[in-house]
Amino acid sequence: MSQRDKDENIDQGVIDGFGHEWAAFDYAETETADALDAQFAAYCAPLDLAQFNPKTSFAGDFGAGSGRWSSRLAPYFSLVYALEPSDGASQVLKKKFADDPKIVVLQETVGVNSIPVGSLDLAMSLGVLHHIPDTALAIKDVARSIKPGGVFLCYLYYSLENKPAYYRLIFKGVNLVRRVISASPQRVRRLSATIIAALVYWPLARLSKVLSKLGRNTSNLPLHHYGEMPFVMLANDALDRFGTSLEQRFSKAEITEMLRAADFDLTTLKFSEIEPFWTFAVIKKK
After folding, report:
1. Using N-to-C axis directions, what is the helix angle for 135-145 and 252-261, rounded to 10°?
2. Last residue of a domain, one of 210, 227, 242
3. Which of 122, 150, 154, 165: CA 20 to 30 A from 279?
4. Residues 6+ apart with CB under 8 A from 100
């Protein structure tokens, strides 16, 4: 990694990995639209997008990937910055939004980008900042682009503090597998993720779906929130989970402290009560 990359608080290997991932899972087809709509609605549970003015409000999607969330932000804003540092994903974004003047693709990093300071009514980062070496600094970088009174919507991997001991024990084993797979060549990572999706994600997800229909509580069954998702999304998330070498997890208390340091109004902080945890919304101090 170059000194410039270190200064920008990024891991080039992680960025390249996500570039390959989003080039493979570009969501250009429509068969996943309903499932993606449902997932986006879950992410947005802590806020009401209708509060923004579609004629005057600006938004930024930090770590836009394939643009699946940027496209769903667009109806609520006059302009959406889709910020994505990887070559592979940026090419997907440029092709997907070539004819959409409301979405501006920026191949730039969270730490160094051309989004005007204090310009955003909403900054969104879903499942990205926990893959950056210094997540607290990344949150400050995002905050710089938000106007006073603007909103930050974010999803960070949670530290499982609300799960039973057996659940956390399973996670430790899974994390060891992740360390091995994420150190493998890209082709091996993708093949491994597809196998895991087929042999682990899909059976557990469908078991959860059946149990839910029978009225059983599945909240502590691993992967229960994938019950309604198509296989392509399971394979994508398996690659995201097992193919990434840098992963951090945070408790509510740790997230709260990072937001305090980034000058957000903690009286407005709202954590989602539904998965994925921890998704939260918070307003920048005026």
Report:
1. 50
2. 242
3. 165
4. 74
Q: Is the peptide bond before 22 cis (omega within 30 degrees of 0)?
A: no
Per-residue b or e along 13-48, where b marks 16 or more CB atoms closer than 10 Å to that residue's CB: ebbebbbbbbbbbbbeeeebeeebeebbeebbbbbe
Number of domains in the chain: 2
The residue range of the domain holding 186 is 165-242
Which residues touch 103 (CB under 8 Å, ≥6 apart)? Answer: 67, 70, 71, 74, 79, 80, 82, 97
pTM summary value: 0.88
Pairing of strands 58-62, 120-126: parallel
Strands 146-155 and 120-126, by their bridges, are parallel
Report the alpha-carbon distance of residue 137 to residue 103 in Å, rounded.
26
Residue 132 and residue 185 in one domain: no
| pLDDT digits 0-9 by tens, 136-163 | 999 999 999 999 999 999 999 999 988 8
**Token output for 136:** 């607290």
| Tokens standing for residue 138 | 């990344």
**Are 67 and 96 part of one and the same domain?**
yes
Average pLDDT of span 156-172: 90
81 and 176 part of one domain: no
DSSP class per residue in 29-82 = SSTTHHHHHHHHHHHTTTS-GGGS-TTT-EEEEET-TTSTTHHHHGGG-SEEEE
Cα–Cα nearest to 19, from 108, 106, 127, 91:
91
Distance between CA atoms of 182 and 189, rounded to whole angstroms?
6
